[in-house]
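Listing 4. Sequential folding, example run.
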Amino acid sequence: MSPAVQAFLERRRDVGDRARGRGAIHIGLVNNMPDSALERTERQFFRLLSDLAPEMPICWHLFSLAGLRRAEAGHIYLIHQNYRGLSGLFNTHLDGVIVTGTEPLHADLRQERYWPELAMLFDWIETEGPSAAFSCLAAHAAVLHFDGIERLPLEGKCFGLFDHEVFGAHPLTSSLRTPPKVAHSRWNEVRPDALNEAGYQILTSSREAGVDIFLRRARNPMLFLQGHPEYDAEVLGLEYRRDVRRYLEGATDGYPELPENYFERSEIEALDRFRERALSCSDVSLMGEFPDAALSRLRALNGTEPRSTVFTAWLASIAQAKAGQNGFIPARRSFLSASMS
């Protein structure tokens, strides 16, 4: 384990210990990302919420769907970091929950092996759970389950940093700078007309990337994001590098497109030269000559790029609701008993 990762984990434990004694907000992270991104996604959300709202102590609770395919290393990580399954989530006193996406294997999300478990999670959130936020694929899966809204394939991957327009006045977006830049990385989308017809409220959208943030009226607020405000500055570059490797390994047919509005001209030129070589000699050994220097500047910018303040406002709404309650939200034992029987 690298010193940086070790320091992060120690900081998270320290923050959690202090939070438990200070009337913390209890947030559940249902981290469904692939093995290679588990730790990074956990770190991104921890930093995003904790750094943007340091005055609100957060006690994190980690969960993941049991039906996800994982290698031995992934299972070991989940055990080492005290991840639990849905039975643990239903019996934890949570004030809010964040559900991440994962890489789908089927065009129809209902064909995924973890779909029954994910649907059970959505039902709990809708009927008994706390305020929830759904990121990227989790947002697509949730609107499909709640309202039958199908995600539709795009002509090409929506990949890059895009300016967004804020619609109307809402507490969740009132502090966003205009135009906010948000990272997107997906092959599908949910269309605004379908969301409008189902009664969702669209808060932000992009001419290039489509709808980003939207809300569903429910007993507790439901926040949906097609983009990734939690992404560190380096992530899109690392995803591009991953996709290049997959092409050279023969796992994909087409060479990936560069993320839009992301690299500088000199970096694009270096990456285009590598692309020409890769197209003429598709050999994964070429990755040893990949121009990683094009990514180093982005690593240096980590933490200084514009971040969405939506999650900060979401936390504030949870804190306000919590202040009007006596104690935590009750445990969901009745739901657990009915679902597991």
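-- end of first protein; second protein begins --
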Amino acid sequence: ITDLPTVVTNDREVSAEMVRYLAQLGHTDIAFITGDPLHEAVADRFLGFQDGLAQSGLKMIKRFVIAGDNSFRSGEACARKLLQRKHRPTAIFAANDDMAAGVIRVAGRMRISIPEQLSVAGFDDITLSRQLDPALTTVRQPLARMAEHAVAMLANHSEHSNYECVPATLQIRESTGPAPVKH
């Protein structure tokens, strides 16, 4: 722990919220693509994934947790591994939007329709997430508000706490939908 002013978002809690949302849509086979394990926020997102499964009464399927490196290419590689399996997930939650975009590309090339056959969710709400087709359901990090809080903390260093959490929010778009009916 540092004395430097720190502004974060609630990565773990909002990731659990995303998983609960997917479970409410009927998804029980939910995969997670992890990012760089040395990135603390990304590690918190994986903990949130586990929390969300537990809160929804679902068990984590170890073969549905796959390591990416936060890049579009790793999202593609992870999607290929997950979607080529006989028993594949009905939803994939990626630790960032770049990897989720890679999932959408691979699903399209494999003729897996989103969201009818596969729901995809990401994290960050980068500009690309709104430009994808279908537009990506994601977690919006409140970067502008976080920056404002950080500036205020620096300007009033002695008057306020050195730590602040600004909550992130789900952005529900077209890439998620009800789980497909199993035959």
